[in-house]
Amino acid sequence: MTTTDFSTTILVKNSPEEVFNAINNVRGWWSEEIEGSTNKLNDEWNYHYQDVHKCKMKIVEFIPNKKIVWLVMDNFFSFTKDKSEWNGNKIIFEITEKNNQTQLKFTQVGLVPEYECYDICQGAWTTYITKSLRNLIATGIGKPNGKDKPQTEDEKELTANFSTTFFVNQKPEEVFSAINNVSGWWQGEIKGSSKKLNDEFEYNMLDIHYSKQKLVEIITNEKIVWLVTDSNLSSFKNKKEWNGTKIIFEIKEINGKTQMRFTHIGLVPKFECYSDCSGAWGMLVEQSLFSLITTGKGKKVF
Predict the structure, then answer these.
(1) Which residues partner with 48 through β-bridges?
(2) Whether the model pTM is above 0.85
């Protein structure tokens, strides 16, 4: 069987030298949060996107104005069963002159359709290469993932909130339905309704944690927002830390998969309960809710 590595090509009017320099300015077109040097042979650097994708690259071939090769030394995906897909892959940039223009051919050797991440990864690379890198080459301004650059107090608060994301093969309507089946994944006693706007429900876990939620926003198959109207966290001095916080579920279809992003607005590191609460949410969302969506049955995590 012939495997097909992902590849895409662009043509620009700029010189090979300008293309070469733009590629090496990885922060200018892929991510501003890259750590390490990215512009000479044997350089090693790290990339991450939220809690979804982390990788470590090494430049193993570097021919000025002609070719650059990165080796993926380590990789992690939060949304695949095989978290290490990409490990050992090579990412190749080949620059040639063609019809008075410069051709850039991008290939990820090892990124093949058999990969679970293939659809998402090839879609992302297509955007980065054909739009962000092309713009950087042509105009000097790319469109990379940005560092947190909050402009308002609300945005400053948002950047510190606990959040986690996963991808599933199920449709957005299946994800939406599972989230609303709160008793199917949130371990504890649930009383009340949790499926339509202005519904209210109470959660209680062994008298350790009580909270009351109201559905204040619901967009079918796209978004659900709970407002915590009351809470009692018995293990902490400030038992009402959750009061007034919002719990948000955002659903989006991306390249044939469904992304579910969970954010607890107001659950910030300065909270006394942050470590315990963020750890519990991580298990409930990433394991129990994920299991309910993918198998029809939630998972006992504690």
Answers:
(1) 54
(2) no
